[in-house]
Specification:
Number of helices: 3
Largest sheet: 4 strands, antiparallel
Mean pLDDT: 90
Structural class: alpha+beta
Radius of gyration: 19 Å
Strand content: 25-35%
Helix content: 40-55%
C-alpha cells in the first residue's frame, strides 16, 4: 500500500510558492532586488510538485520503505510480519530483535485517509 503526503500541506506550499514568486516579480520590477523570494518560491513549488507526485512511504506484509522527498534515497525496514510495526501516539515503531526502533514518519504529513488505512492495517495485524 502506498501512503501519500498530505494534500493540504502540498496545496499550502503551492499557494505560498506562487505568492512569494509574485512578490518577487513585484519587487524586482521596482527595485531589482528580491531574488531570495524567488528562490524560496521556487523551492516551495518544487516541494509541492514532489509531495503531490511521490508517495511518502510504501508498506506491505514484509517491509516498510520510506522515500526521500528529493532524490532516489530510500530507507527500508524489513520484517517477517507487519505485526512487528507498532503505532503509539501517532509515532511508528519497528520492533526488531527485541529492540524498539523509531521510524521517522510524521503523521500530520500523511494524507488522513491513508494514515487511517495504515493504522487499521497495523492494528489488524497486531490483533
Amino acid at each position: 500500500m502506498e501512503v501519500r503526503y498530505n494534500r493540504i500541506m502540498s496545496l499550502i506550499s503551492l499557494a505560498a510558492g506562487i505568492v512569494l514568486s509574485w512578490v518577487h516579480f513585484s519587487i524586482a520590477g521596482n527595485t531589482g532586488n528580491g531574488s531570495l523570494l524567488l528562490t524560496a518560491g521556487f523551492l516551495l513549488l518544487v516541494f509541492c510538485l514532489l509531495t503531490m507526485t511521490r508517495p511518502y512511504f510504501t508498506v506491505n506484509d514484509t517491509s516498510l520503505e520510506k522515500r526521500a522527498i528529493l532524490g532516489p534515497r530510500k530507507t527500508t525496514y524489513t520484517f517477517e510480519s507487519i505485526n512487528e510495526l507498532e503505532i503509539d501516539n501517532n509515532q511508528v515503531y519497528f520492533n526488531h530483535n527485541g529492540e524498539r526502533i523509531s521510524v521517522n514518519i510524521i503523521a500530520w504529513m500523511v494524507e488522513k485517509k491513508d494514515w487511517q488505512a495504515f493504522v487499521d492495517k497495523v492494528n489488524l495485524a497486531r490483533g
